[in-house]
């Protein structure tokens, strides 16, 4: 019981209360939890996850959400607004991805529930399209090792073989020759990231495009993280290679509105060079007693509120708003990288963008993490090699955060030297921090991770 969240302050609901409680009381309880939890990242010391951080913007989005939250966007006869929102979200995203360069096919898109949703729909579309057009029955996909685990998950779910291409340890970029050598008759797509989650580096999309065109396979660019910020970085003159539809072999791109689109959690946009690819995964049941059924993707009912809020975020910021936020984020990321580079013991991996990752050849960099945690910092931990990553978001652009980062990092390096021979307390796990995990005993690690997930999904224990 002692670990169940808020058990010491609020009633624990092990069953549906016999009598309902007042709205005021419930909202009071929720406000208390939200306020305390927001304090965690409002300091600007938390990597990624809180991309916007502006409570005025959140209020605006929840107003927009509230107007349509009860609407099921699957029932379009009742909500033409959903068609407007979705169409315009897709069109605005296609514009950012330079769909004007597309010739001979009709660009298209889907709004999904998040990055994983966009990647899953893309993989399903490639599988279905290759089956329909090329008779592929044992599909495979080739991804850089650094591409997100959502590709592994999608391939697992859809019976697609996943081939993981190695990356250069210096640049963190995929070995394009390896990819070229592992594409065969059953390959449905290859993957590149712009940028990848771990290192913030952009794969050589132009070279991957040549491979894709040479073999006649798809090229999905994972812009889940970078899709709504890298285009503005390009506009600002940062050296970011082309990764969008201006590269001829790129056939689909995922871009998360719920990250640097500053929308509410629960949306992402998947765009396609060719509508035929999107449509290959449309789903129909024509002979059901309940009526004829169709859905454009995997979800059934969807919230009109999320479409409204995402649309509202995009039209509120416009090019100018996004570019201004991108400018401050890129400047902050540069300043933080300079702080890292000022320590010869630390090494930044590859040539990153707004997100950077660093390791150490002098000590286990998790000692740095241990110390920085005490100062309120929350980084994402990586492995092979052990590294820490910081995805710079708007909360870091507040006054004083870069300076605090530099000062705390200097102390952390001293601490790491003092503890060089010891085992650090923290380790690498995506989305949380667990202690003492190394890459060895896979079964043990999975058991620990399962226990952690059990905890997140637990039923409240009895007193
Ligand atoms: C976040 C992310 C994903 C997965 O997105 P979710 O929204 O967490 O499902 C995929 N790729 C990259 C590069 C990401 O940063």
Low-confidence parts lasting 5 or more residues at pLDDT below 50? 432-436
Strand content: 5-15%
Terminal CA distance reads 6 Å
DSSP strand count? 13
Q: What does the model show?
A:
By secondary structure, the protein is α/β, with parallel strands linked by helices. It has a domain at 80-313: 3-Layer(aba) Sandwich (Aspartate Aminotransferase, domain 2). Helices cover 41% and strands 13% of the residues. The chain has helices at 23-42, 55-68, 80-96, 115-134, 149-158, 176-181, 205-215, 230-235, 275-279, 304-341, 366-374, 401-418, 442-456; strands at residues 108-112, 140-144, 161-165, 187-193, 218-223, 252-255, 268-272, 283-285, 293-295, 346-348, 355-360, 380-382, 387-391. Strands 1-7-6-5-4-2-3 form a seven-stranded mixed β-sheet, sandwiched between helices. Strand 4 (187-193), helix 7 (205-215) and strand 5 form a beta-alpha-beta unit. Helix 4 packs across helix 5. The radius of gyration is 23 Å and the shape is globular. Pyridoxal-5'-phosphate binds next to helix 4.
